[in-house]
Amino acid sequence: MEIDGWSQTLGAGPLLAIAAGAIALILVLVIRFKLHAFLTLVLVSLLTAFATGIPSGSIVEVLLDGFGGTLSNVALLVGLGAMLGKLIENSGGATVLAETMIRLFGERRAPLALGVASLLMGFPMFFDAGLVVMLPIVFAVAARLGGPVLLYAMPSAVAFSAMHVFVPPHPGPVTASELYGANLGMVLLIGLLCAIPTFYLTGVVWGRITAKRFPFTLEQIGGIFGGGDEEPVADPPKVATVVAVLLLPMVLIFMNTGLDFLRAAGAVDPDATWYGVLATLGSSVVALLISVLVALVVLGFRRGENGTALEKIVDSSLGPICSVVLITGAGGMFGGVLRTSGIGDALSGVLSDLGLPLILAAYVIAVVLRVAQGSATVALVTAAGLMAPAVAAAGYSPGQVAAVTVATAAGSVFASHVNDSGFWLVGRLLNMDVATTLRTWTVQQTLESVIGFLIAGALFLVF
To answer: pTM for the complete prediction?
Structure first.
């Protein structure tokens, strides 16, 4: 935001020094003192505002503007996405989808089938929630077909990771889209173009490699989820119903992107009533709202669930996302301070002098932050907040801005290790020791990051 009657008097050197100090303080507070990322980002945002000379009477307004501006869209998308995923999980749709994929692909391609099912499930479901839902199915398939657990588990885990990193409505790409001002439909398209080949190369192919190097079986890890003996869901939905519910928001969002292109080309009248109605239906928030309402009917009421039960199911999906939403908003607050103070403009000038491409700079900053403090969300929102003014000033096309958004998200997943909760989640669920998790999952996340960035970079040149 702009502050009437105030302009920044500090030069580029002091501003960049303050930015470096702010990032260092974030790392120290999160890593050394274990202060929660939400509190850390709020505190550092406040200190940065004072240090850069923002008028004291405007500081709270700047903080709230950055926080609220980010969450106005992100909270709705993340909340609705979590609800949709919970409804599909509770209905038994995940199991039906996985079993159908295995029948279609055949037992020899069961790892690929589980991965494709996880890709579809990964659109609305968070990484950790999706992994917990799908691993019992993965273990049941591993028990039935035999062979190393990683052959079946790696494609599924990577599918959820790739969708979580690259594709809206997950908080990372949504937050980066907000900070960069990217078209969400374009981010969705480029995110999918990055996620699918990245999943195959770092999930299916890397899964085969790791299975040969670490051929432990379900019996050796103890059947953490009971080998798939869970009580089956009564009257699960048909697979076509599950796929239709998953595709509905994507179709609506893509429709909106198509309308945007037609408007820009002068092929349609943006003042027409029908255009306004379709554009509203295709907006990301409304598209997800429609999908959740449809899921309540086809995955709930039509299967005999009553209103009270469905209300509890939907409500249970919101608790786990609270921390993510608050951290995301605080990251937006930090980004807002950086923009208002002029730090972003100073960084833009330095990068221009160095000749470093903005897309590469955004990726590298996200990688450094990710490796240093572990949180992908903190890495992404900090990097995007720093780079947003430079990207805005560069005059990129909507496709290029979306590619920068996805490239920054790719940097935020680099080299998951001991300071990342996802590292421990995967290691614990598959009963792997730290060394094995480093050799399998950490390497996979590094490959996922690099390949995703290379694809985003190639698409940046195309668009």
So the answer is: 0.74
* 68 occurs within a structural domain: yes
Average pLDDT for residues 250-262, to the nearest whole number?
A: 79
pLDDT at 146: 82
372 vs 349: CA distance, rounded Å: 26
* Polymer length of the chain: 463
Q: Does 169 sit behind a cis peptide bond, omega within 30 degrees of 0 on the bond before it? A: yes
Q: Which domain holds residue 151?
A: 12-462
Residue 3 covered by a domain: no
Taking Cα atoms as reference points, which of 400, 408, 385, 393 lies closest to residue 459?
A: 400
- pLDDT tens, residue by residue, 119-133: 988 887 778 777 877
Spatial separation of the C-alpha atoms in residues 258 and 356, rounded to whole Å: 33
Cα–Cα distance measured from residue 59 to residue 48, given in angstroms and rounded to the nearest whole number = 10
Domain count, the chain: 1
Q: Read off the tokens for 183.
A: 């078209």
Three-state secondary structure call for residue 364: helix
| Mean pLDDT for all residues in the chain | 85
Residue 419 lies in a domain: yes
The two three-digit tokens of residue 227, written as one number: 């080998």
> Distance between CA atoms of 16 and 148, rounded to whole angstroms?
50
**Residue 226 binned pLDDT confidence (cut-offs 50, 70, 90):** very low
DSSP per-residue codes, 102-133: HHHH-GGGHHHHHHHHHHHHTTTS-HHHHHHH
Tell me which of 183 and 220 has the higher pLDDT.
183
In this structure, which amino acid lies at residue 306?
A: N
Q: What is the DSSP string of 227-241?
A: GG-SPPPSSPPPHHH
Residue 336: CB atoms within 10 Å: 25
**5 belongs to a structural domain:** no
3-state secondary structure 292-352: HHHHHHHCCHHHCCCHHHHHHHHHHCCHHHHHHHHHHHHHHHHHHHHHHHCHHHHHHHHHH
Euclidean distance between CA atoms 176 and 242, whole angstroms: 29
